[in-house]
Amino acid sequence: MQSEDLVVRYRYRLSSACLAAGLAVIAVIAVIAVIASAGTRDVVADKVQIVRLEQRWLNLATSDDRHALASIFADDFIDVSVKGEIRDKADVIAHSATPAHVTQSIKDLTVRVWGDTAVATGIDQIHSNDKGWTVEVPFTDTFARIEERWRAVSSQETLRKPDSEH
């Protein structure tokens, strides 16, 4: 073989090796991008699930469906009420009935997710149609993904007293 043939073969092998290495790097970058975007999609989907769960919780508070309400809470759920009472799951369910003349809505809801833990903060706006009053109850609800389902594990509410001018 002549030296020119060796140079051509060496260059061919070198360019093939560079091409293979370049393709491997591109493949790794593509996999990382897919994993990163999938993780982002999961966080968004988790936030949507928590928002829906908060709304379901609010809706069930005005119903008689205690079984459905119980399904939102983890078995060891703990709540600190607006009165400062520490209540377990059974206490919360037993005292969750909202009178027919009272409406509730959630405003300023923010959900943050870290893996299998989520925290929702917002304001429960409660209005009595027949008495004409409205109160706001800021809350923090903590959720955990338990057996592939989001469950409330802890909650705390604070009664916001109306300004004396109103």
Task: Please provide a brief summary of the model.
This protein is α+β, with helices and mostly antiparallel strands.
**Whole-number tally of structural domains:** 1
Mean pLDDT: 84
* Contiguous uncertain segments of 5+ residues: none
Approximate strand percentage:
25-35%
Shape: elongated
Distance between the termini: 99 Å
Number of strands: 6
CATH architecture: Roll
* Biggest β-sheet: strands ordered side by side in the sheet: 2-1-6-5-4-3
Q: In CATH's first tier, which class applies?
A: Alpha Beta
Helix content: 40-55%
Class based on secondary structure composition and strand pairing:
alpha+beta
What Rg, in angstroms, do the CA atoms define? 28 Å
Number of helices: 3
| CATH topology category name | Nuclear Transport Factor 2, Chain: A
Major sheet summary line: 6 strands, mixed
Overview features:
single chain; Nuclear Transport Factor 2, Chain: A; 35% strand; 3 helices; alpha+beta; 166 residues; 6 strands; 6-stranded mixed β-sheet
Describe this structure in words.
The protein has helices spanning 3-60, 66-70, 89-94; strands at 73-80, 86-88, 102-114, 117-128, 134-146, 149-157. The chain is of the alpha+beta class and 166 residues long. The protein has a single domain (3-157), classed as Nuclear Transport Factor 2, Chain: A (Roll), CATH 3.10.450. It has a six-stranded mixed β-sheet. A hairpin with a 2-residue loop joins strand 5 and strand 6 (149-157). It is elongated and about 100 Å long. The N and C termini lie far apart (99 Å). The mean pLDDT is 84.
